[in-house]
Design goal:
The protein is mainly alpha-helical. The protein has helices at residues 2-15, 18-21, 25-28, 38-53, 59-66, 70-82, 104-124, 130-147; strands at residues 86-90, 98-102.
Length: 165
């Protein structure tokens, strides 16, 4: 029975790959604005989450959220900065670091992205009961929280390869 359940989860996750592999920028900027790279949305999200926690956000925070190496995250931040979505300022914690913060354009993009994602999810879950949506959210959160920051899988097939590694 457990093997059947694991097979079902594996199949569902493979089919859901389109959620993160396909660009959703068209859902964010249907107003005819410039296309936004998914990587810039991740930089914006990392900055918004740090601001919500009241913590300073650096390139390392972007790297963790995007699941990439810090050098790659630095390039992603550069692109988001060039697009006017984030600004760098000296870190209050260390003279060797810079802190990232959302610009007004970055904050507006984040708001549109959240509205677009949640609107899309509402459409997909329209036939579900409120209890089912709550249970799905709780189980998915539990699953995501349990992943933490896993090490890359061994060649023994313990899981899918991590992007950017």
């Amino acid at each position: 029975m457990r093997d059947e359940g694991l097979a079902a989860v594996d199949d569902a996750l493979l089919r859901l790959r389109r959620l993160w592999s396909a660009s959703r920028s068209r859902l964010v900027d249907d107003d005819g604005g410039p296309a936004v790279e998914m990587s810039s949305l991740l930089v914006v999200e990392a900055c918004a989450r740090g601001a919500a926690r009241g913590t300073e956000v650096g390139v390392g925070d972007v790297a963790r959220l995007a699941d990439v190496e810090p050098s790659t995250a630095s390039r992603l931040v550069d692109r988001a900065q060039e697009a006017g979505l984030v600004a760098r300022r000296p870190s209050a914690a260390s003279a060797r670091r810079t802190a990232l913060e959302l610009t007004p354009a970055g904050s507006a993009l984040r708001e549109r992205a959240v509205r677009a994602r949640q609107g899309w999810l509402a459409d997909q879950l329209a036939g579900w009961t409120e209890a089912d949506v709550a249970a799905f959210g709780a189980l998915l959160t539990r699953f995501a929280d349990g992943l933490g920051d896993p090490a890359p899988p061994s060649t023994g097939g313990s899981g899918p390869p991590r992007p950017g590694r």
